[in-house]
Amino acid sequence: MPPVNKKQFWYMWLGYALALAAWYAATAWLPVAAFERLPGPWEVITEWFSTDPAYGISLFTRDYYIHILYSFYRATAAFLMAVALGVPLGIFMGWSKTFNDFAAALFGLLRPIPPLAWVPLAILLFPSSESAVIYVTFLVAFFATTMNTYVGVRSIDNDYFRAAACLGSKPRHVLRHVIVPGALPHIFTGLQIAMGAAWFSLAAGEMIAAQYGLGYMIFEAYNLIQFPTIVIGMATLGIAGYVSSAAIRLLGVRLMRWHEQSLGMEG
Question: What pTM value is reported for the model?
Fold first, then answer.
């Protein structure tokens, strides 16, 4: 993740402050019935940091961290499976026109299906709700990873492939020295998108087929009319998704920097 300079830092916090001010104004001053039902920022912050929360969820309660751990486990498991399957599939789709013709039609048919539509089928396919939630989360991350990897391979200049062929490179050498390095920026962009997508699809799956997790916590709070807890769960999902994507971005920057340095040493 590139360093944030002083100007960017203050602009970032100014954006947060303006969002909080708009939130407060909407709930306190706007004569709209929908906003009157929403909790204000101070009510949510007070509940979030309370040692004795009115609705049982705060930074000081055990249940809050249990929900986070369940969601983190599911999102991470789904993301790792998406990487393990999506990156090789995207590479082969971009590398081989024959394989792409074979796989692209089915892939294009399945990709637009929203994650919620997969939930009933996942419950029927898998014996446990845990597997069903991870499967639904995996699908969204898998499609994002595969498509960005495919675009990365297709964006590599054909001159590199022709040069490798003239030098007598074998397919494994082309894969290692041309395809993977050339597609790496797009792959890590896809991984960032996939991690964010995993978190929002995870919440949808947990609302329907789970007993723990942030999505379940939000839906249960809605059923019990605990509006501050809903916002706490949403904010926690946003923070978790942002931190996870930022960690992947930082890893990508470091790996590509190492690769550029190695190419300079070889040259």
Answer: 0.85
